[in-house]
Amino acid sequence: MTENQSVANWTRLIAVEIRRDGTSLSEYERRETNTLRATCQGAQIYPRDPVTVSGLPASRFFTRVTQCAGSTQPESALYLVIQGKDALYAIHLAWRPYPPTENELQAALAYLATVRVCDTRAGSCEKERQEAEAGATMFAADQTAVWQKTMDDARGALRIKHYVRAETLYGEALQEAFRMDPIHPLLARTYDALAELWRARFRPSVVKQMQEAAAAIRAKNPPGAPEPTK
Question: Containing domain of residue 41, as a range?
Fold first, then answer.
C-alpha cells in the first residue's frame, strides 16, 4: 500500500503470498478465480500468460471485479504466480477504484519482469536481491513517470484543441496521482491543468471548481512541502 493508506482505504496494493502446501500453478489459478466468481460481482478473468521466472514455470493473469465482499469499490488485479521447488509464490498488484491505465499496466508488467526467485541453500542470493530492490525502486519512480507522460500527452491534445482527448488523459493523470496518495501534490498540479482545459472551453464555473480542488489539496500538505517542478 502507498503511504497514508490502510487495508480499508487503499488504492494501490502489492501483496506477496508464499504457499508451501503443494499447491500447483493451475490449482492456485483455479482457486483464486473460482473465489472471485463466488464472492465478487462482475468478475472478469482474463486468459493466463505462461512465462518463466529464474528458470521456473510461472504465469500471469489479470482480473477485474465490480464489487467484492467487504468492499464497495471496483478492483483490478495483476497476478504473477511462480512454481518454485518447495513452494508456490504469488505476487499480486491491485488497483481500485479505477482500473490501471495502459501506461500503469505497462509499468506493472515491467516491475514484475524484475521479480527473481533464489534458493539460499544453493549459495548467495545477493545478485537477485539487488535486482529485486532495483525493480521496486523503478516501480515507485514509474508511478510519477506515468503521471508525467499522461500529463504531457494531455497537454499535447489541448494544444491542438482535442478537448475530449485532453479531458480523458487528464482524468487518467488524476487517477494516477490519487493512487500515489489521496493528497499527493501532483493531484493539485492535475487540477490546475484541468482548470486550464475548462478555461479553454469557456466553462468558468468548472474552472473555479478545479481551482478550489487544487487549493484544498495544497492546504492538506505541510507548509513548504516540496512539489514536483515539472
Answer: 1-99
